[in-house]
Amino acid sequence: AQLVESGGGLVQPGESLRLSCVASGFSIHTYNMKWFRQAPGKERESVALITSGGGGTDYADSVRGRFTISRDNDRDTVYLQMNSLKPEDTAVYYCYAQNGWNNYWGQGTQVTVAS
Fold this sequence. Notes:
Order of helices and strands: EEEEEEEEEEE
Number of strands: 11
Distance between the termini: 38 Å
Radius of gyration: 13 Å
Number of helices: 0
């Protein structure tokens, strides 16, 4: 079982990116899904959460209003739409799945915001 992120890259401030996280070896239907990020020299921080049914979302204050988390349970995929990117959003972004029995981390995808 694993999570694989994609969609990272180098963009300029103000631009957008959409990250994807695909699960294999398990179904995400029963999992709450999160995106975390870790910048160089900093601790890993939670960015966004979406509940298993998709009805609940929550965001870090630093990204609220700019990032949107969504999920497609039929495709076992979670997305993070990131708009109005800032240099301080530069980090490795990780996908995380958790339910009452298991949890999984992805390997991360690099997002760099620079002019």
